């Protein structure tokens, strides 16, 4: 009886983790799909089709009913690499970072541009 409860609880936990990984990889795929292709080249981060294929495969592997755990982990790592390394570089190139896309200059102070007291 106790064994059945523990197994059921573990199965529920794995189901939630699996759903979280699926949503995470789907977000990475959608984000990659909406970014401009030239930003990938400008950031020197592979190509847009490369990331769409890799992240799309990660989503598909998560949707498969068979347990290809090692492929799920590889897809998760690819999504993490995209969101931690590629996405910020592309956002910086395309002006999608903080400050509404305005790039600061070397004369900017903590409260905005310094104009030499004028």
TrEMBL record:
The chain crosses the membrane at residues 13-30, 51-84. Residues 92-118 are annotated as: Disordered. InterPro entries: DUF2516. Residues 94-103 have a biased composition (Gly residues). Residues 104-118 have a biased composition (Low complexity). Keywords: Membrane, Transmembrane, Transmembrane helix. This is DUF2516 family protein. It comes from Streptomyces pathocidini.
